[in-house]
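Deliverable D4.2, example record:
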Amino acid sequence: MENIDVTVLRTLRNWRLESKRALLVTVVRTWGSSPRPVGSIMALSEDGAVVGSVSGGCIEDDLISQYRKAYAGDDSELQVSRGIPQFVKYGITADEAHQFGLPCGGTLELLIEYDPEVNALDELVRTLEAGNLMKRVVCLTNGRVTLSIASTPCELSIGSELVNVFGPPYRMLLIGAGQLTEYLATMALFNGFSVTVCDPREEYLGTWGLTGVQLIRGMPDDVLASFKADRRSCVIALTHDPKLDDLALLEALSTDAFYIGAIGSRRNNELRRIRMMEYFGKSEHDLQRLRGPIGIYVGSKTPPEIAVSIMAEVLAIKNDVTLSPEVNVAQAKHLRDIKINVSDATH
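Output generated by the structure prediction step:
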């Protein structure tokens, strides 16, 4: 699946190219629990069509109602005559939170832009489709938009201007084209990642059955060098073959990839670290970003369950979540072994 922001912006661009009136709505602040994070966007066309989301649905329904009233000249909280961006809050009181389906105590503030200028939207969409990060700055006094290429992702900020950085999809490079890879690639696509699978072994690529994934035949370390992993990339080795995994992982550790990991048991991962230190001169510090065994501990045994475990850990790291040591696979299995030994000793 495509990055949802790109989908929203492209759809909005197309509406405006058809001379349809439309809104761009951005979540700019939240208090307490909120259904969508800051920076989430949605677009609403004059005919009531919606793409994207700022809540679980109830706020979208209210915006559709208010938008239609405003353009029909009926009483509405939305003031669209000058096209100046407008702030709207939802969920300020407990009754409103209940009415709009927000969690208890949840409040969010939206910025609504009316009829965004089509040329700026077209430039933004084309730049994102080319794989670039783009900074979009909206002047809050007149709605004027300026665009520039961004070097790094950053969080939305708001003062006299709204500053939001949009980027291409997060990328995942998977080394090995086995069954586990197909499950993990499916989940990554579903979560908006662009997925590349690398495997020089013809017998594996010949049976690949998943569409929407770029397949590359070549040695993984060479592919990794051309992949140019950045802060929106993750690299995962799934072959169990040191000849394919090790050099690629070493190459990945020289990049800014936010997640680097390899499948394997605790023993195999320890042996990998030993090889990298003995034969490639790496230190523990050099290898601290290398994850393994990968995933969060859910007692996984089957390929789909293992894929769920890995994807959960990737998303947690992507979203800057600190995982408890108890969900670390190696730590959890160590604690399990201690419990088993204690139980055996008491019988």
